[in-house]
Amino acid sequence: MHALDSLTLQYFYKENSNFINGAIVQKIQFPSRYEIILTIRNLNDEKPQNKKLYININPKYPHICFINENTFIQRNIEIPQKPPMFCMQLRKYLNGSKIKDFKIVKYERILEFYFDYFDEIGSLTRICLAAEFMGKHSNIILYNAQNK
User: Fold this and answer.
1) Sheet with strand 110-118: strands edge to edge
2) Chain Cα centroid distance, residue 34
3) Percent of the chain residues topping a pLDDT of 90
4) pLDDT per residue over 61-104, tens digit each?
5) 114 FRET partner, CA 20 to 30 A, in 83, 92, 93, 139?
C-alpha cells in the first residue's frame, strides 16, 4: 500500500469524475469507524451501473477506491448489525440524494462531494461530504455547503 498524496488523489478524481458526477447514493455502510462504503448508481451512461465507493481514513493507510464483492471477502469487511450515529446521520441526509459536484481541493488531500437534498420543510439544500486524507489527522465531515 502506497501513501496517498495529492497527485494520486488528483488522478483518482480525473479518472472517476464522469461516473461520480450525477450519481445517486443508494446505500451507506460503516464497516468500522475508519471506513465508509457508499453504493452509488450512475444513470448518465446508456447502461446504468452500480459501484461501491470505499473511503478509508485509517491513520496508517488512508485511501479511496471502488470495490466489489470479492474485495469484501479478501479484506474481511463485515458490516455491523447496529450502525454508528454518524452513519445514521449520513443515511438521513444522503440516502437517495444526487451527487451534484465532486471536487478536489487544489494542492490538498481533500475530496468534496456536493449533494442536493430536500430538507424537512421541502426546500432544496446543498450539503457537502468532505473526506480529508491527512494520515493521522484524516477525517470525514458533513456540513451545509451554503453557509458552512
Assistant:
1) 63-67, 49-56, 35-42, 24-29, 98-104, 110-118, 124-132, 139-144
2) 12
3) 16
4) 888 888 887 776 666 777 778 888 988 999 888 898 889 988 88
5) 83
